[in-house]
Design goal:
The complex is a heterodimer of chains A (340) and B (255).
Chain A lengths: L3 E3 L29 E7 L5 E8 L5 H11 L8 E4 L21 E8 L3 E3 H20 L18 H23 L7 E3 L1 H21 L10 H29 L27 H17 L2 H28 L16
Parallel strand pairs in A: 2-5
Antiparallel strand pairs in A: 1-3, 2-3, 4-5, 6-7
Chain B lengths: L10 H4 L11 H32 L10 H10 L1 H17 L8 H22 L8 H25 L5 H36 L16 H39 L1
Helix pairs in contact in B: 2-3, 2-6, 3-5, 4-5, 6-7, 7-8
Classes of the chains: A alpha+beta (340), B mainly alpha (255).
Keywords (chain B): Endoplasmic reticulum, Fatty acid biosynthesis, Fatty acid metabolism, Lipid biosynthesis, Lipid metabolism, Lyase, Membrane, Transmembrane, Transmembrane helix
Pfam family, one (chain B): PTPLA
Protein name (chain B): Very-long-chain (3R)-3-hydroxyacyl-CoA dehydratase
């Protein structure tokens, strides 16, 4: 890329027209490339941060972010949000300069998104935490319950079953994060890791405390209740896995083209006919199964809070689908068929 | 304790920095004026009740009983403010170009109303033994003076006839009343602790069908601890508001 980066001081220096430079004249038969000038202005202070001369019209926002990063090394590209309007949305990395509604002199407002962290790191720490914390309570490590119960084992088989289910759920999530998920945003704000981890870890500790407590009371309807609940739980786990596989297969690696998910040969994916985000539906089902299995009020709280959050996310995704695709199936609801 | 920006919707913000404001419609204004007048009157009743009881008894011990009912009624009535505030902010959020931004003062003041209601019902009402404590008088009198000033401030603001004295009082008295009220509240909760522990009030123990437990005693201790981060935030928020409001008027006066 042939550019000259000039630092524009806030002395009211106006954009100057491209001064003639000693370059070989382009051959007359070739297309004339109109180079762009890009100015980056701080969205809050309106200070001119950078003026880029001779920017190729086919360069993407990501290229511009990389250049900006060179002159301002503390703002790596993932942290930058470049906007056409200070109050608008950030431009996408793959947007090409010449397709944007700017003249040959483009002015972008820069917004610092704050320290970023890779989504994979966040997801993995969210999942390893509950896995390990639950096991700490399951094995009744010292200082949790009364000393006479240290390292003892529960006499209720449902407690062992619950541990297996809970651990299976998080191991599955970890494996999916490592091998299956494809997320379009590379990073998220750093504070998310604290927020998300506190949420998952605190709830996991709260649930695990009661389920593995020496005074735990097994479910009222006994074996029947537990067996039904386990079946629901496993059914929804398989369902959730199927959906994740299906969503992965929609995207080719590296491409950012969005496609509508459709039911496949796998019966667990037939729910796509009625729901936009069946992964959340199955997740809700799993936790409802777990609640019934353990008959534990904190688990019920966790399920309810999770349901509220997932509904918010599902509705957001559903809205995005309907905005992107004109022919999006109208029968689908965000998370619960026909209801929500 | 004066809660910033409750009771009216935009006028409390407008005395900080007069921006282009879409004031509430005529019906909403009428409702808010009536609401604030009623609340001012209610807290005046409480204030008069306290003074009369003091004069009759000759001492300031046990005055809580003389104003117990109006206190419960009018403090609980403040919950309406939370609903008013939330609904007006929902309107702003729906119309704003960047939804999802909730003013931090909504959280802080909503929390404050809830903490007041909590103290009225879940501590003072529930633990009979603390009702004769002096700390109760401490926070009740702090609340009474603050609320009378605050509600009359809102009333006059809504009618666009705000005497400077009321504005000054609202943004100055809190400097003393706020710590006074907080001290009273903390002492009251502290006084309630032994009774809560002894009787196991509002507590659920294991084992039980739902595998859940709740220790109200620990909860009260955690509540007291939570004052440490939260009270300074509210206090300094009010101090910042004070600088903005009173400095702004000073500039205006020197013109």
């Amino acid at each position: 890329m042939d550019t000259l980066a000039l630092e524009a001081k806030a002395t009211g220096q106006e954009k100057k027209s491209s001064a003639p430079r000693p370059r070989p004249k382009p051959p007359k038969k070739a297309k004339r490339i109109v180079y762009f000038e890009v100015e980056i202005v701080d969205a809050k202070t309106k200070e001119k941060l950078l003026l880029l001369d001779k920017v190729e019209p086919t360069s993407t926002i990501l290229d511009i972010k990389a250049l900006f990063h060179k002159s301002n090394p503390q703002w790596y590209p993932a942290r930058q949000s470049l906007r056409l309007d200070p109050k608008g949305k950030g431009l996408k990395d793959e947007d090409v300069l010449q397709t944007l509604p700017v003249g040959t002199t483009a002015s972008f407002y820069f917004f610092d998104l704050g320290a970023q962290i890779a989504w994979g790191t966040v997801f993995l720490s969210e999942c390893y935490g509950p896995l390990l914390i639950y096991l700490m309570f399951y094995f009744r490590l010292p200082f949790i319950y009364a000393p006479k119960y240290d390292f003892s084992s529960s006499k209720h088989w449902v407690v062992h079953l619950a541990c297996m289910c809970h651990s299976f759920h998080y191991v599955k999530r970890i494996l999916e994060t490592l091998f299956i998920h494809r997320i379009s945003h590379g990073t998220m704000p750093l504070r998310n890791i604290f927020k998300n981890c506190s949420y998952y870890w605190c709830f996991a500790a709260w649930m695990a405390y009661y389920i593995n407590h020496p005074l735990y009371t097994p479910p009222y309807y006994g074996q029947q209740q537990v067996k039904t609940a386990v079946i629901i739980f496993l059914f929804c786990q398989v369902g959730n896995f199927s959906i994740n596989i299906t969503l992965r297969n929609l995207k080719c690696p590296g491409s950012k083209v969005k496609k509508i998910p459709h039911p496949t040969k796998n019966p667990f994916t037939w729910i796509f006919a009625l729901v936009s985000c069946p992964n959340y539906t199955y997740e809700l089902g799993s936790w409802m199964g777990f609640t019934v299995m353990t008959q534990c009020l904190p688990v019920a709280f966790f399920t309810i809070v999770g349901f509220v959050l997932m509904t918010v996310w599902a509705r957001g995704k559903h809205r995005n689908y309907r905005k992107e695709f004109r022919d999006y199936p109208t029968l689908r609801s965000p998370i619960l068929p026909f209801i929500l | 304790m004066s809660a910033p920006a409750m009771g009216t919707t935009k006028t409390a913000h407008s005395d900080v920095a007069p921006k282009k404001k879409r004031g509430p419609g005529a019906l909403a204004t009428a409702y808010l004026v009536i609401y604030n007048v009623v609340m001012t009157a209610g807290w005046l009743v409480i204030a008069v009740g306290l003074v009369r009881a003091y004069l009759v008894r000759g001492s300031y011990h046990g005055l809580y009983f003389s104003i117990e009912k109006p206190l419960k009624f009018f403090q609980t009535g403040a919950l309406l403010e939370v609903i008013q505030y939330i609904s007006s902010n929902v309107m702003i959020m729906l119309c704003s170009p960047a939804p999802g931004i909730v003013p931090s003062s909504v959280v802080l003041t909503g929390f404050q109303v809830l903490s007041r209601v909590f103290l009225t019902w879940a501590v003072t009402h529930s633990v009979r033994e603390v009702q004769s404590e002096d700390s109760v008088l401490l926070f009740v009198s702090a609340w009474t003076i603050t609320e009378i000033i605050r509600y009359s401030f809102y009333t006059f603001s809504l009618l666009n006839h705000l005497p400077y004295l009321i504005k000054w009082a609202r943004y100055t008295f809190f400097l003393v009343l706020y710590p006074m009220g907080v001290t009273g509240e903390l002492l009251t909760i502290y006084a309630a602790l032994p009774y809560v522990q002894k009787t196991g009030l509002y507590s659920v123990t294991l084992p039980n069908k739902y595998n859940f437990s709740f220790d109200y005693y620990t909860f009260l201790i955690l509540t007291m601890v939570s004052y440490i981060p939260l009270f300074p935030q509210l206090y300094f928020h009010m101090m910042r508001q004070r600088k903005k409001v009173l400095a702004h008027v000073e500039e205006y006066k020197t013109e």
